[in-house]
Amino acid sequence: MWPGGAPAPLGTQTVKDSRPLRDKSYQSKMRQDVYNYLTSSGFDIAPGTLSSISGKDYKAIFETLVLTVDPFYPFVEGSRLEEEFVPALRALRYPFSQLIDQRWLAAVASPHSWPSLLGVLHWLVEVCKVRSPVPIVKIADFSRCGMTTCRAATQPFKIPPIFPTNSMTSSTTRPSHFNTAKRRMTSG
């Protein structure tokens, strides 16, 4: 578990998704909702991206929306989407996470996988709208050191890093109790 969330409830009962995900007009509405939210939030997306999406674009949109809902979600840099996808959905309590097949991510735009994967993005957008005071987090804005920048359509704001960086030596300044705890773990 990470600081920004709670564990998802465990259960053996499968909940069926009642949304008409295979209906073309419903897909069109979901695409338009996702596109409108992303563009209004400052995310750079072309109008046709959601009609023929690549895996790279899907990952960028997915991670951006997850970090908008929970800016502290611990995505591992350089990891594959297949490894992060279902755990992130479970952590955010996506009600249909047990219906998602990770193999769908190999070809996100395929006719058998796209309706459900679009449904995930649409659900995330709806959650983001409920949390409207929280601005969208753009993946490209993260830097390895210093302050982390999050941009909204209206005004940027700063989130301080957990341990501030000393700009003179480019080393991380940690509280003294952190170093003591680390020594105890390695020596014992």
**What class would the helix/strand composition place it in?**
mainly alpha
Outline the biggest β-sheet. Answer: 2 strands, antiparallel
Radius of gyration, CA atoms, in whole angstroms: 19 Å
Question: Given the structure, what is the number of helices?
Answer: 5
Order of secondary-structure elements: HHHHEEEEH
Helix content class: 25-40%
- Counting DSSP E segments of at least 2 residues, the number of strands comes to 4
| Strands side by side in the biggest sheet | 1-2
Overall pLDDT score: 76
Q: Would you identify the regions where 5 or more consecutive residues have pLDDT less than 50?
A: 141-188
What is the terminal-to-terminal distance?
25 Å
| CATH class category label of one domain | Mainly Alpha
Strand content: 5-15%
CATH topological fold name of one domain: Actin-binding Protein, T-fimbrin, domain 1
Second CATH tier, the architecture of one domain: Orthogonal Bundle
CATH homology group of one domain: Ncd80 complex, Ncd80 subunit
What is the 3D form? globular
Report on the structure:
The chain is mainly α and 188 residues long. 38% of the residues lie in helices and 5% in strands. The protein is built from 5 helices and 4 strands; from the N terminus they run ααααββββα. It has helices at residues 24-40, 55-69, 81-91, 114-130, 176-187, and strands at 148-150, 157-159, 165-166, 171-172. Helix 1 (24-40) crosses helix 4 and helix 2 packs parallel to helix 4. The longest helix is centred in the N-terminal third of the chain and has 17 residues, at 24-40. Mean pLDDT is 76; it is low at 141-188.
